[in-house]
Amino acid sequence: MDGHTRYSIGDLARRTGLTVKAIRFYSDRGIVPPTDRSPAGYRRYGVDAVARLDLVRTLRDLGLDLPTIRKVVDREVSLPEVAAAHADALAVRIRTLRLRHAVLTAVAERGSTPEEMELMHKLAKLSEEERRRLIGDFLETVFGDPDAHPEFVGILRSLTPELPDHPEAEQVQAWAELAELSRDPDFRAAMRRMAEQYTAERAQGDPTGPRRDIAAMVRDRVRPALVAGLDPASAQADPVVAEVTARYAHVFGLPDDAEIRRRLSTWLETVNDPRREQYLERLSVINGWPAPESLTPALDWFVRALRARTPA
User: How far apart are CA 287 and CA 282, in angstroms?
Assistant: First the structure.
């Protein structure tokens, strides 16, 4: 066929598989304009109309709008430019759909109220920057300016949630619960007290010597007693209590007396806030970390043991 070949709309329909109505629609909008008209006034098209219609159908299947398609077929914009722009837009759309799917799945599994669902959806739709700002405000309230307290840098990092781009339903639910927890004024105040007590104890102890999380140390020393089912007030628990209090007193260079035991008991009661454990549990789900071991049984046991051996 040569460049003078002309097709009727019916010819194009047979060659492209499109309906006559669809071809007329694209023609009326200037996307596939006719080359000329027959003596009877019918539209006729050149050989390039077949290629244009094939491209139009492909771009429509990919979701492009008609004004953009016209620019592509008229070469006002390049196809790679349009493809890149729409790929980016589609990625955002996919992320939104994944979030909606995760929210709906979480609601179905949890049996949330409409209010909880709305909140979960709003929180899940926050951008990464907005999520960081929300949690950043909470962490700054608790720990203060990290530049002024470099000792908290590692702690801040370990307490920061990172919701993935394609979260599972349980991660969306955990994120919503953690966000709500971080906005609780009472929880903020409790966490602030922990941070202040940590700072005060760090300042009093030897900052150059080895340090270990006291709560973790208590957990490790108490674990065998829990397994053995020892009564915290019994004489069999004495060696466990003595070892822990001796280590705690040594850190601060203080005598292992009733005062140091009262101080340790106060610290452990502060740390043993169930909301702190809830925060860490939700954090591990969001970040895909192993679930943290609960400190509650060990701390409860040891606080009861201290009370049984400390004068009122």
Answer: 9
Report the relative pairing of strands 36-37 and 43-44 from DSSP bridges.
Answer: antiparallel
**DSSP state letter for 34:** -
Name the residue among 254, 261, 250 with its Cα closest to residue 303.
261
Q: What is the total residue count of the chain?
A: 312
What whole-number distance in Å separates Cα of residue 85 and Cα of residue 161? 30
pTM of the model: 0.62
Report CA-CA distances (Å) from 45 to 6, 23, 228.
5, 11, 91
- Model pLDDT for residues 175-220, shown as the tens digit of each residue: 888 988 998 999 999 999 888 877 777 666 554 444 457 888 899 9
Query: What are the E-state strand segments in 32-115?
Result: 36-37, 43-44
Are 39 and 177 contained in the same domain?
no
The answer to whether 3 and 40 are in contact (CB under 8 A) is no
State whether 245 and 163 are in the same domain: yes
8 Å CB contact between 63 and 86: yes
Tell me how many domains the chain contains. Answer: 2
Whether residue 293 sits in one domain with residue 177:
yes
Within a domain: residue 81?
no
Which CATH number does the domain housing residue 37 bear?
1.10.1660.10
CB 56 within 8 A of CB 31: yes
Q: Are residues 135 and 58 in the same domain?
A: no
> 58: domain range?
9-72
Q: Which position has the token pair 């009727």?
A: 8
